[in-house]
Amino acid sequence: MITKNKAMKKILTRGLLIILTITPFFTMAQDKVIDQIVAVVGGNIILKSDIENMYMQNQASGITSDGDMKCEILEQLLIEKLLLAEAELDTLIEVTPSQINQQLDAQIQQYLSYFETQEALEEYFKKPLPLIKADMQDMIKNRLLTQQMNSKIVENVKATPSEVRAFYRQMEQDKIPRIPTQYEYAQITIYPKVEQNEENRIKAKLREYKKRIEDGTNFATLAVMYSEGHSARDGGDIGYSGRAQLDPTYAAAAFNLKGDRISNVVKSEFGYHIIQLIDRKGEKVRTRHILMQPRPTPKAMEEASKALDTLSNAIRKGDISFDEAAARYSFDKDSRNNGGIVINPNTRSSRFSIEQLPPDVSKIITGLHVNEISEPFKSIDQNSRQNVYKIIKLVNKVNEHKANIQEDYQLVSNVYLESKREKMLQDWITKQQADNYIHIDDTYSNCNFEYRNWIK
Predict the structure, then answer these.
(1) Angle at the Cα of 311 (from 305 to 312), degrees rounded to 5?
(2) Lower CB density within 10 Å: C or N end of the chain?
(3) Residue of 344, 341, 402, 393 lying closest to 372 (CA atoms)
(4) What is the DSSP letter of 373?
(5) Is the pLDDT at 147 greater than 60, yes or no?
(6) DSSP characters for 87-118?
(7) What is the CATH number of domain 182-193+296-402?
(8) How confident is the model at residue 12 (pLDDT cuts 50, 70, 90)?
(9) Where are the alpha helices (DSSP H) in 217-297?
């Protein structure tokens, strides 16, 4: 737990989400043995080794505390068990293999950045990487379950403008956060032309895969081998999705499937697919797919770059405005009708810190002046389509400053919302303490817990 007196920092970083970090990876460094039970929450137990291992992780990460860190860790685990127990009772909360694998890969990358090499990581855990991953499966699953439960508890929290303004007026000056330099930019995106024979080739390959599956080949195996989507490593499984979460043509095909039938080739904004229905729950379907993207020729890529270069020169000369050029020529449907302005998916505002920008954009935007237009560059679009060409315009740059209600309303609103969500979660925890059997070993009876009702 980060030092307690940093209250605003705790809100800004969603301190309570730290609670959701299930017993850390240090647990897996040791063989599982019979251990001392230090707490029971409903039907779940907390072991002494859970606390010791999390304590080791905190020390290795440089995390300090003004209080007793082991007591703080125990309270984190107690809250986690309450959330997990509730999540397991909720039939609408579930975790797919795809979600687990994505989180697992991200966690392994984090560990590798700490240990620097795979060999050092394996030496620490005293086991090869595949076994490390196997040991982490339940940890990741529980983390995702409790995150979903946390989100469900606070999903209806809202903030009115008057509440946000009142919250800002009451903030202590030294608690008002500083905002890093932020950028607003517009873009025009062009896809190189793809030859019809290339599209026909892709469709023929997918029809071949469909026939192989219908003849007995495992769909997931072919997805791992040939799909170009992010879900390939999960056998093409994208989990449960509603119609609004899917490309319209993909959704139409998926919701029309019966049993385990394979769709015909479907064209979406991502490329071409064949789709298999895994399960249906109400208004959601769980599907797997094989995605393939047609490739433009080198000549087509060069022509796309030249077309953008000509367009950017026309904008610079004033023959056409950037807004009009975006509306007429940009392939990016999310920004072309908004003058090319790109929206930050994390905040739903048009501002990005340098860390939030796509890497290819961040390299270029820092060298632009406001209203300056870049040269064409090769990029990847929001649908992970390769071989896309862009020009960008720096619309605005806001230098680092202390947050204010005029320029940073959305951020202040987010801070206020987090404080309201934290209060709602605190109220939920207090109620769960009263409704659940909780026992804590006497060795922790002197802990100064944030919540007073753990020990009854």
Answers:
(1) 90
(2) C
(3) 393
(4) B
(5) yes
(6) HHH-TT----HHHHHHHHHHHHHHHHHHHSSH
(7) 3.10.50.40
(8) very low
(9) 219-226, 248-256
Can you tell me whether residue 292 is helix, strand or coil?
strand
Tokens of 311: 């367009």
Q: What is the mean pLDDT of residues 297-311?
A: 93
In sequence order, which residues have a C-beta less than 8 Å from that of residue 25 and are 6 or more positions away?
Answer: 57, 107, 111, 136, 139
pTM over 0.85: no
Q: Look up the CATH number of domain 7-158+416-444.
A: 1.10.4030.10
Burial of 419 (0-12, 13-18, 19+ CB in 10 A): middle
- Predicted pLDDT at 259: 85
What is the CATH topology of the domain spanning 196-292?
A: Chitinase A; domain 3 (3.10.50)
User: How large is the C-alpha radius of gyration of the chain?
Assistant: 26
Evaluate whether 315 touches 373 at the Cβ level (below 8 Å).
yes
Q: Which residues contact 104 (CB under 8 A, 6 or more apart)?
A: 133, 136, 137, 140
Q: Which residues pair with 287 in a beta bridge?
A: 277
DSSP secondary structure, 394-418, as one string: EEEEE-SEE--TTT-HHHHHHHHHH
* DSSP output for 118-161: HHHHHHHHTS-HHHHHHHHHHHHHHHHHHHHHHHHHTTT----H
Residues 212-268 pLDDT 10s: 999 999 999 999 999 988 888 889 998 888 888 898 999 999 999 988 889 999 999
What ranges do the domains of the chain cover? 7-158+416-444, 182-193+296-402, 196-292
pLDDT at 95: 83
Name the one residue in this structure whose structure tokens are 């919302």: 417
> In the predicted model, what is the mean pLDDT of the chain?
84
Dump strand ranges (E) for 220-283.
Answer: 237-241, 266-268, 271-281
**Fold: same for 7-158+416-444 and 196-292:** no
Query: Residue 341 pairs with which residues in a beta bridge?
Result: 186
Determine if residue 318 is left, alpha or beta; phi over 0 gives left, psi from -120 to 50 gives alpha, anything else beta: left
Handedness of CA 340, 346, 351, 354 (dihedral sign): negative
